[in-house]
Each structure stands twice: as C-alpha cells, then as structure tokens.
Amino acid sequence: MTGAIFSADKRLQMNVVLQPSDTFEQMKNLNNTIFPIAWLNESVVLDEGSADLFKTQVLRNIKVVTSLQYLVLAIGIFIFVLTIVLLACNTFLRKDEKDEYKIINKSDSSSVLNEDT
Description:
This protein has one helix spanning 48-116; strands at residues 7-18, 33-45. The protein is 59% helix and 21% strand. It has one helix and two strands; from the N terminus they run ββα. The chain is α+β, with helices and mostly antiparallel strands.
C-alpha cells in the first residue's frame, strides 16, 4: 500500500509553430511564434476508503515501530542500571569478606601467640 498515489495530474498541450509566409498575405508580417491550440488537464485524488486503508496498513505500523524503539531503549536502561547495582553490591560484599578475613586472621594470630607463651 506504500505505492498508493494520493493525487496525480496529467497535462497535455498541443502547439502550432507560426512563421511568416509569402503564400498568405495576412502572415507576411508574422513573427516566429509558438501558438497553443489545445490544453488538456486530468487530475485524480485518492478516495476516502483508500486513504483509510493507507492509514491502517502503513501509519499504524510506523507507530508500532516507534513504540518498540522506546520499549527497547527502556529495557536497555533497565539492564544497565541492574548491572551497575549488581557490580556495586558485589564490590561491597567482597570488601566485607576481606575485612572478615583480616579479623579472623588477627584473632587466630593472637591465639597462636598466646599459646606459645
């Protein structure tokens, strides 16, 4: 339906070349002229039914594609934010694990030292 013609015009003009002539007394002083003798004009406009068909088949699809691009953008932003949150949580959990490891090692070291004395 995308190849539908909304409006079209066809025009045709027929001309005659007029030149001075020695044969006809009235045409002796005539300048070289192109003189139109017929003009045809034909025009067509898309009817309401075809216009509605175009709107439902083409414009609706354009709206769907436009909506889908925003949906995909929103999903991408959500995944990006989720990744940032998970990385931040993972970083904080590892930091806490390292701190616990240091505390455990310090307490083990002190107990080993106390046993030796």
